[in-house]
Amino acid sequence: MFFGASQNDVISVSSLNRMARDLLESGLPPMWIGGEISNLTLAASGHGYFSLKDAGAQVRCVMFRNKLAALGFRLQEGMQVELRGTVTLYEARGDYQINVDSMRSAGLGRLYEAYERLKAQLEKEGLFDNQRKQALPDHPRRVGVVTSPAAAALRDVVTTLRRRMPSIEVILYPCQVQGQTAAQQIAAAIAAANQRQEVDVLIVCRGGGSIEDLWAFNEEPVARAIAASTLPVVSGVGHETDFTIADFVADRRAPTPTAAAEMVSPSREAMQQNLDLTRRHLARALGRLLTDKSQRLDYLARRLQHPGEKLRRQQASLQQLQTRLQRSLQQGLQQRGWRIGSLQHRLQRQRPDIRRQQAGLQHQAQALQATIHQRLAHSRLALGRLEATLLAMNPEAVLARGYAIVQNAAGQVVRSPGELQLGEQVQIHLAEGITGARIEPLHGTQSELPF
User: Fold this and answer.
1) 235 vs 182: CA distance, rounded Å
2) What mean pLDDT is predicted for residues 197-221?
3) Which of 129, 214, 429, 444 is the one with CA 20 to 30 A from 33?
4) Cβ atoms of 171 and 127 closer than 8 Å
5) Which NCBIfam families match (predicted)?
6) Would the pTM count as exceeding 0.85?
7) For 258-298, how does the pLDDT look when each residue is reduced to its tens digit (9 = 90+)?
8) CA-angle at 327, arms to 324 and 331, nearest 5°
9) What is the pLDDT of residue 6?
10) What is the DSSP string of 42-101?
């Protein structure tokens, strides 16, 4: 028996859930609980729904709008928090949950810390730089899809490509997109696509989910494989609000798998519209060209002449040109004849008188000869005067007249007796040689010199 009910008593599900809620709320007082936020959903009503988990378990939580508005920070996926609430049960679904009254931050969660750490590392290495991102092909023939064969994302991609451009061939590179080995399988699929080189662009995608569900796309092997890809890569992971490391490394980020398919494929309708517009422009251009050519043909037809008439006109023009040429030649020859006669007349007038020039030249030669003889006579006289002057000034001529030059022992010329001393040896230069002498007193006195 339970709560006094007999064996034949039957209660409704609502009654059961109400009893369970009463037991939880009365048996467990409000308490502080620590854990990591996961599966966060912020409803349009303003209420917040999430799971609080640790390494071994998780529990659903709800934080109503008035409590959430008073919170001093914004809830984020992966946050490590400490919350105070009442353990209860949501009767409509029978969900065991915590009604959160207050919350305080306990630091970032393990997954969020790993996410931020890897993001910072790859950003520092330049894997997010726009310079390394490749352009997508305008008209791909084959599109590769890296995802699970059972994923709804694959159906979305294939449906979108068939709708937009049925001629595009889709090649699947199957892999797990969730679980412990998902990251290695995704990286291997990307590497296989690059090795086979059978597609023009690669879509890496999966549907939405919690941060744990999408975690494979936040792991380093996937980021490295996308960065090393020679094929352009479009990342379409989760929903529009989900951002993974793969989104930052990929050449393009699409908010959903469907958007990724739209991003890599041209629209058949848009291409058809452009083709129709081009066809109309071409038709108008051809119409204008035909009209212009028709008018040109009519103009040329009016200018067209009979060959015989054209030959007669050309023959008459040729005859006229021949007449003008003959007249021009005759005038030219006549003008040149006049020119030659004028030049001959001028040449006769400019012809020199050779005889008169020869007579003048002979007269000038005689005058030159006389001038030369006269100059030579004057030069001889001047030379004689200079020679006499030189002979008169020649020291040897003076010596020949009986004079002598006296030099002391230092070789200096003695000009005064006062420059000599008794007993000093001197040299005497005569006209016919050199002799030596010694200074002695004159008349037996030491005060008087011989000179």
Assistant:
1) 16
2) 90
3) 214
4) no
5) xseA (TIGR00237)
6) no
7) 999 999 998 777 777 888 888 888 988 888 888 888 788 87
8) 135
9) 53
10) E-TTS-EEEEEE-SS-EEEEEE-HHHHHT-SS---TTEEEEEEEEEEEETTTTEEEEEEE
